[in-house]
Specification:
Keywords: Signal. With 299 residues, the protein is of the alpha/beta class. The protein has 9 helices and 11 strands. The chain has 3 domains: 54 residues; 139 residues, D-Maltodextrin-Binding Protein, domain 2 (3-Layer(aba) Sandwich), CATH 3.40.190.10; 101 residues, D-Maltodextrin-Binding Protein, domain 2 (3-Layer(aba) Sandwich), CATH 3.40.190.10. It is 44% helix and 24% strand.
Length: 299
């Protein structure tokens, strides 16, 4: 017969043994649990950074009233244009969504410098701005003269000598055409082109329609769209004068993004997406495929 004291002693020994075993088990579990816990914590803390780097939206500035580069379809409000197609392609290559920022040309550079946007399409690659911006050239631009089909024929650019010519003062075309006139009209003892600067190309086109000027000049990339709006209304005068390159602009210090976008554009040239986008908007004559493939970036 077991005494009460012996039974209590056995209970205490059993309890102490169980607690010791449990303690040893917890220590063993702790040995493998803690590193795993720490590793998981590190992975969780690092994961958002990696995900954000891949999925942070690209804030892209463009000019949504500059067809065919970017514009909204009147019936639907859908944003379309060659800039839209190329930007969508680049964003998919970079696995990043897009936030469009509709700005004016005058607002684009300040928006880049202050980093309110990450990049901007349809900028002119101007040496004067390279201290503040980096550029990736993607289209060629020219100055195309045209007149009304109903106007007395103006067949060649030199036929503009002595004529009134409308030019948008915002893009410097007026000064370019005056210089051209000095070289090609005045130097040949012909009357100079009478350049009349206007507040925008639309204003110049209105003056042409009203008979106040004989012809106007316009960025060559936008002329096909203009002529498609009113078929048979306008006729080109000669070939476009070489002007400049159209570029994607980046703030200084955005080297990684600039190079990623340049690489994506090279891919677009290689796989045919670039040519397809230009053909869609009748801009094959403005192709800078050779520039994109040869140089990639313009610093």
């Amino acid at each position: 017969m077991t005494s009460v004291s012996e039974e209590g002693a056995r209970t205490r020994v059993h309890t102490a043994s169980a607690m010791a075993s449990r303690h040893r088990l917890m220590k063993v579990r702790g040995i493998w649990r803690k590193p795993v816990t720490y590793a998981l914590a590190i992975c969780v803390s690092l994961l958002p950074v990696a995900v954000m780097a891949q999925t942070a939206p690209l804030r892209i500035a463009l000019f949504a009233s500059f067809p065919p580069m970017a514009y909204r379809v009147p019936e639907t409000g859908q944003l379309v244009g060659v800039d839209v197609d190329l930007a969508d392609y680049v964003a998919k290559k970079l696995h990043r969504p897009v936030i469009w920022q509709d700005v004016s040309y005058e607002q684009a550079i300040p928006a880049l410098v202050t980093r309110r946007v990450d990049l901007a399409f349809s900028l002119l690659d101007e040496p004067a701005s390279r201290s503040r911006l980096d550029y990736v050239d993607y289209l060629l631009s020219g100055i195309q003269a045209y007149t009304l089909a109903s106007h007395n024929p103006i067949k060649t650019l030199t036929d503009l000598c002595g004529q009134k010519l409308g030019a948008n003062r915002r893009n410097g075309f007026g000064q370019i055409m005056r210089s051209w006139s000095d070289t090609n009209c005045v130097a040949a003892n012909k009357p100079p082109v009478a350049v009349e600067e206007t507040d925008g190309t639309q204003a110049a086109r209105l003056e042409l329609q009203q008979g106040r000027v004989d012809a106007i000049v316009q960025s060559s990339e936008s002329v096909p769209y203009t002529m498609d709006l009113q078929p048979g209304t306008y006729v080109r005068i000669g070939q476009p004068l070489p002007s400049s390159r159209i570029a994607i602009g980046f703030p200084k210090g955005a080297d990684e993004l600039r190079d990623q976008v340049a690489a994506a554009l090279r891919d677009a040239v290689t796989d045919g997406t670039y040519a397809k986008a230009l053909a869609k908007f009748k801009l094959l004559d403005n192709s800078a495929a050779n520039v994109i493939s040869a140089t990639g970036t313009q610093h």
